[in-house]
Amino acid sequence: MATDTPIRTKDIKRPPRALVQALGQIGSATCSGELKRLGIRSAHLQGPVTHTPGIAIAGPALTLQFMPKREDLYPDAEYVSPERQLHRHVLYRTRPGDVVVVDARADMTSGVFGEMMMTYFKGRGGVGVVIDGCVRDVANIKSLGLGLWLRGVTPNFHTQTNIFPYAMNVPIACGGVTVVPGDIIVADDDGAVVVPIALAPQLAKKAGEHSEWEEFSRLKLLEGGDLRRYYPLSDEARGEYEAWRRAQGGGRP
């Protein structure tokens, strides 16, 4: 790999923070279901699962793509020419609230990031990573409070075996789903979902409405209400729901 040409990278266009927060309040399951109604069959990044139960995040995606290793294209040691290593450069672009999404080719023998890299990411304001692959130093990374959605963990460093970082902030495949830089990631205990940025405002509106009537229905079901009446919300229960919304300070009197 050439070492005399400086690496030039590009940033992402970030969505309004209020939009990200609105989607984060909805959760991955509702986002996934409502995206299906908007024409996206499956937005779930399959493979990476939570390694930090109870943590939920939402944020724009910085992307990193790994490729099968070719030794003439990448040095075979961990610390050789560190500024040529793109897994560092994607972290340099981090802003508060960002999520790093990595196509690591489902490789289970390469630790994409370790404790030091994730400490830097946390210090820059990053909130979580979704990796179709592994990290190392997982116990120490968990102590940082980041959200981790991973296939697994390994003691190996990022280029020790089969793959090397090839491109950043380009469209990638992660967990069988296309992720475009700047898309919004919503991730929690159910998994990680990618929200296409063009659909995000419409999704926030529709999913917000869905989440609200589900809250009402949940209360009624806990009281012993009829599943057929309250889930999904039937036309017969619509009046009750609207009255409940008004009592909660929502909707029009």
Please summarize what this structure is:
The chain has 253 residues and is an alpha/beta fold. The protein folds into two domains: 17-197, Ribonuclease E inhibitor RraA/RraA-like (Glucose Oxidase, domain 1), CATH 3.50.30.40; 202-247, no CATH class. The chain is built from eight helices and ten strands.
List the helices and strands and how they pair.
Layout: H1 17-26, H2 28-37, E1 49-50, E2 57-68, H3 86-92, E3 99-103, H4 115-123, E4 128-135, H5 138-142, E5 147-153, E6 163-168, E7 172-174, E8 177-179, E9 184-188, E10 191-195, H6 200-222, H7 227-230, H8 238-247
Parallel strand pairs: 2-3, 3-4, 4-5
Antiparallel strand pairs: 1-5, 2-6, 2-9, 7-8, 9-10
Q: Quick one: CATH superfamily of the largest domain? A: Ribonuclease E inhibitor RraA/RraA-like
Number of strands: 10
Helix tally?
8
Helix content, binned percent? 25-40%
Low-confidence stretches: none
Q: How much of the residues is beta strand, in percent?
A: 15-25%
Structural class: alpha/beta
Number of domains: 2
Largest sheet: 8 strands, mixed
Whole-Å distance between the termini?
67 Å
Describe the fold and architecture.
With 253 residues, this protein is of the alpha/beta class. The chain folds into two domains: 17-197, Ribonuclease E inhibitor RraA/RraA-like (Glucose Oxidase, domain 1, 3-Layer(bba) Sandwich); 202-247, no CATH class. The protein is built from eight helices and ten strands. The protein has helices at residues 17-26, 28-37, 86-92, 115-123, 138-142, 200-222, 227-230, 238-247; strands at 49-50, 57-68, 99-103, 128-135, 147-153, 163-168, 172-174, 177-179, 184-188, 191-195. The strands form two sheets. Strands 1, 2, 3, 4, 5, 6, 9 and 10 form an eight-stranded mixed β-sheet that branches. The chain has a two-stranded antiparallel ribbon with strand order 7-8. α1 runs parallel beside α6 (200-222).
